[in-house]
Design goal:
- Helices cover 70% and strands 1% of the residues.
- Helix 3 runs antiparallel to helix 8.
- The radius of gyration is 23 Å and the shape is globular.
- The chain has a two-stranded antiparallel sheet.
- The protein is mainly alpha-helical.
- The protein contains 20 helices and two strands.
Amino acid sequence: MGISILKIQNGISKFILGVLAIFTTLVLFEMSTFYYENYVTVNRAFNWGSLLLALLFVGVAGYFLVKISNRNKKLNWALLLVMLGIFMIVATSWILVVPKTQLSDFGNFWTRVPGLQHGAKLYRTDNDYFSRFAYQSGYMVYVLGVVKIFGYHIFAIQFLNVIYQALILLFTYLLAVKIFENIKVARLAVLLLMIDLDWFALNSQASNQYLGSLCYLLTFYLIMQDKLWAYILSGVTLTIGCLIRPIGPVIVAGIVVFAILYTMFEKNKFNYRKPLKILLSLLIYLALFSLAGWGIKASGLNAYGLSNYDPEWKFVTGLNYQSNGTYSPDMDRLIDASKPRKVMSKEEKAALHQEINYLNKNNKWLSLFINKVGGLWSQRTMATNFTGYNQNHSAKTVDRIDYLAYVGSIILIIFSWIGSFSLFKTKFSNNIYLLLLPMLAFAAAQLLIEVQGRYRIEFLPVIAILASLGLYQFFIKKDV
């Protein structure tokens, strides 16, 4: 029985790695297509020169990070702290040079603070932003808390984002060590993520993605400790993550599948203790999240708590073939805050049926899904677009900054593709599936709902860990 369980577990693992390899291959193909269509024949000297220099820099920096001994713990930590220090200097410089203007959804959080402080309501009708998407109230509480402590200064939000980003790099490092037991791979993961402007550019905005991402990574790390206190604490960090960045369902789904596949049977024996501890973590999360929803209602901030009062919208945009499942100005026709939610809900449901009928009639489901994978994982995150950088810089400068940001994504995509295939011949802990399963669940869910390039930011640390393994393959023979 033990042998059969092991065979089943190994078969499932290979299947997951196969799905991952197909996924990264599709992402690479879509990236290559996007690059060919947008950059190959435009500004060729700058574009190709910048890409080659970036790859050269990664190669040289990676070589030295691998050559430096990992036997001295103090040296390992000193090197990591130097890397984090360099990143914080660069990231802080970025928020100092870009406009302080808060754009798009980020402006919804920041610009409403003064009114709320003087007794204004978070929304006027049942079809306003914060009534339709009440689940955003968690981050609104965070913003109000920061303003309460530091005053109405956007720099406080921005610098806290930088701190969260540095901590994300730290836990990316720790997770890589936990999975591969290889400090040099962990160093490369930090390197590849810290140079990706497509990842860190949103620190200038009141973005919930960095604190949310940090909480999810911390949750994964705590679960990997396999200690009762860590499981209890992971329930708390998971709750905070879901309150700040509401992508909890895919995270929870990944954790549940991981618990069933990799903790219920260990060393060919049934193990009930570890799954029960993970269940305890999830029960703590459910209790705390429900309590937080009740608290939001009781405080009077939002009568809808932390619910999604407009479930149709994400599907209407996500299944729109003409926009490849992304938000577009054409979709504005469905937004009319002056109309009651019941009226708009009917209109959105009718629009949703139209989108589904179009996909069925024209057999466009597969092509839509492929295009959405490209839009979410292969193209620019558009993070630099949300900084308002074009307000005080020339179009040429903006184009170059946008491209340099994308170069970081290109490098991650190339090496994560190599890394995904390297997993078939590399020894690693089953803990890697605690990262891969939520990411794949997120990728699958996004096939049906609205996508934006920046939505992948939470999972770029996972991509960076895969990419670090891919990059490490070039130094293995020289790593003596």
